[in-house]
Write a structure and sequence with these properties.
- The chain is globular.
- The two termini are 23 Å apart.
- The strands form four sheets. Strands 2-1-3-6-7 form a five-stranded parallel sheet, with helices on both faces. A four-stranded antiparallel sheet has the order 8-9-10-11, with no helix packed on it. It has a two-stranded antiparallel sheet with strand order 4-5.
- α1 crosses α5 and α6 crosses α8.
- The protein is an alpha/beta fold and 219 residues long.
Length: 219
């Protein structure tokens, strides 16, 4: 997934960014609400991690404006505000989850996965596709009972296909999901990852529409 992190605490922000990146997601990290608005206006994000107390304002009005514009991007609030009234306000403003600081980074990863599965319409973390049994929570795959080991990037790419079954994804769309703003991307990066996925999962798992993109193979 491509995730927008809105957090002005540099130590916490760096820790969250590194955790998300280690999970295979791409991260764009901003420290102000105006920068968050610019980022959302210029790119498509799969999830937003939103602090509530930023240098240029509060996150709740920002979230309300997003929802008023029809933006349905999942939002997880990360905040030190721990009163029940704060949680109610955040959830009523349109947040999908609310995590109080300090929090365990592994729990954050689990909550990101849970929210993403709900939005994809697959709350059950165990799904099957052809000969593959996929545990989305554990980020593991078995093919005909045998474990398949993917790198973080390979998993992120496969997850992008799995979340859009039958949909053709262009090279640019896949790069957008895997890499943050400003990341250097070699011209054949997607082709290399797709080739590795085919070797590990089976050549039939990723179909190519020459000149157009790739899609998940039929189950």
């Amino acid at each position: 997934m491509r995730i927008l992190l809105v957090e002005d605490d540099m130590v916490l922000g760096a820790a969250v960014r590194d955790q998300i990146a280690a999970d295979g997601h791409s991260v764009d990290w901003v420290q102000r609400l105006d920068a968050a608005g610019d980022a959302i206006g210029g790119a498509s994000f799969d999830l937003v991690l939103l602090d509530l107390m930023l240098p240029d304002g509060r996150g709740i009005p920002f979230l309300r404006r997003l929802r008023a514009k029809g933006d349905v991007t999942p939002v997880i609030i990360l905040t030190a505000l721990d009163q029940i009234s704060d949680r109610i306000e955040g959830l009523n403003a349109g947040a999908d989850d609310y995590l109080v600081k300090p929090f365990d980074l592994a729990e954050l990863s689990a909550r990101i996965g849970s929210v993403a599965r709900r939005y994809a319409g697959t709350p059950n973390p165990i799904v099957t596709h052809g000969p593959l049994e996929i545990d989305l929570a554990a980020r593991s795959i078995h093919r005909e009972g045998r474990p398949v080991t993917l790198t973080a990037r390979e998993w992120a790419l496969f997850e992008a296909f799995l979340s859009r079954p039958g949909q053709l994804l262009s090279k640019a769309q896949l790069e957008d999901k895997l890499y943050a703003f400003g990341a250097e991307i070699e011209s054949n990066t997607i082709e290399v990852h797709v080739s590795r996925l085919r070797k590990k999962l089976g050549a039939e798992m990723i179909e190519t529409e020459r000149g157009l993109g790739y899609r998940l193979g039929r189950a």
